[in-house]
Structure of Recombinase family protein:
Amino acid sequence: MLAVHEVDRLGRNLLEGLVVLNDLFQRGIAVKVLTGIAAGEHIQRSFILDIALALSEDRRRDISAKTKNGLEAARRNGRVGGRRPVVDNDKRAAILARRERGESIRTIAADLGISIGVVHKTITQTTNQSQQTDQDPAQAAKRD
């Protein structure tokens, strides 16, 4: 017997859930649903299991839509999700100046209290941006 907290744990969508249920039942494996409208033991597909799977897919779709709408509304209001950047313009200038003087990435990272990866990424991004500007001055003028 397979125990699941809720039917929606069997698949990411209705079709996947139905396929998993059919496969389990064909193998003779019962499913025990612990919570939700389909709570109980099931040895074969039933209308209530199908409804529970359909409702969980609909709920997932609603959550996804609400999340996307919320993020979009936040962007319109000038808020952006995610972590704040570790490197501001002052740190970027310090990293680049120290690297030009020949200091190692490890030393720069330790002194500024940031990771080696962040220092490397900052140097790489700046190098890539300057190479793009050198290759296509017309594009660089459009960006500014």
The radius of gyration is 27 Å.
